[in-house]
């Protein structure tokens, strides 16, 4: 009898994997808690480099790995494909609930996964392209991009004056109600 494992991933610490585990159970997969692998890591990190995904090294031929969505395995079509191919090579079936529970290692599953992964990668690349285009337009119009400076020009001049007078970085940081790193950046920017 094949063992069933679940891989549940979220990207940020304020998210939980509870809904993914619930979806897998509701789909009829009986998974014991020790066979549920959860982690908080960006999907842009290749599965092979994820600490939690590495815990699936106990998978054996005939086992089943269940994910709720294809993007749990990765956001890059090449990474998802490589992950599924590695699991297929081990004799592990990969089921994706969002694709109707299809086994991604079957011929139909491979085709479906390839098409969906390619579309997802296209959308991601398109979003990046639109974002970069928007930033370029804003920059061309003279709009300041990025985080606002921590210190005003007047405060930077004061930092220089105080440091030249011999005050310590910590003392200057306390006086300006900021941190030492900000003072060190202001000092470095002043150095020719």
Outline of the structure:
With 192 residues, the protein is of the alpha/beta class. The chain has two domains: 4-120, Rossmann fold, CATH 3.40.50; 153-190. It contains seven helices and five strands.
Provide a descriptive summary of the structure in words.
This protein has helices at residues 18-26, 51-54, 77-89, 107-140, 153-164, 169-175, 180-190, and strands at residues 4-10, 36-40, 64-67, 93-96, 102-103. With 192 residues, the chain is α/β, with parallel strands linked by helices. It has two domains: 4-120, Rossmann fold (3-Layer(aba) Sandwich), CATH 3.40.50; 153-190. A five-stranded mixed β-sheet has the order 2-1-3-4-5, with helices on both faces. The radius of gyration is 25 Å and the shape is elongated. The N and C termini lie far apart (71 Å).
Mean pLDDT: 88
What is the CATH architecture annotation of the largest domain?
A: 3-Layer(aba) Sandwich
Number of strands: 5
Along the chain, the helix and strand elements come as EHEHEHEEHHHH
CATH superfamily of the largest domain: Resolvase, N-terminal catalytic domain
Number of helical regions: 7
Helix content: 40-55%
């Amino acid at each position: 009898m094949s063992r069933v494992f679940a891989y549940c991933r979220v990207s940020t610490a304020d998210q939980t994997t509870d809904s993914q585990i619930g979806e897998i159970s509701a789909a009829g997969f009986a998974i014991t808690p020790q066979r549920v692998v959860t982690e908080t890591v960006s999907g842009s990190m290749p599965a092979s480099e994820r600490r939690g995904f590495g815990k699936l090294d106990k998978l054996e031929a005939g086992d089943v790995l269940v994910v709720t969505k294809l993007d749990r395995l990765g956001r890059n079509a090449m990474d998802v494909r490589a992950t599924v191919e590695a699991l297929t090579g081990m004799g592990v079936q990969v089921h994706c609930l969002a694709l109707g529970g299809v086994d991604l290692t079957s011929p139909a599953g491979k085709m479906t996964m390839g098409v969906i992964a390619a579309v997802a990668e296209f959308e991601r690349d398109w979003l990046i392209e639109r974002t970069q285009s928007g930033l370029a337009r804003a920059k061309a119009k003279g709009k300041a991009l990025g985080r606002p400076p921590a210190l005003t020009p007047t405060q930077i001049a004061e930092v220089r004056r105080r440091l030249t007078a011999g005050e310590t970085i910590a003392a200057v940081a306390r006086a300006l109600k900021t941190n030492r790193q900000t003072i060190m950046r202001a000092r470095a920017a002043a150095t020719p």
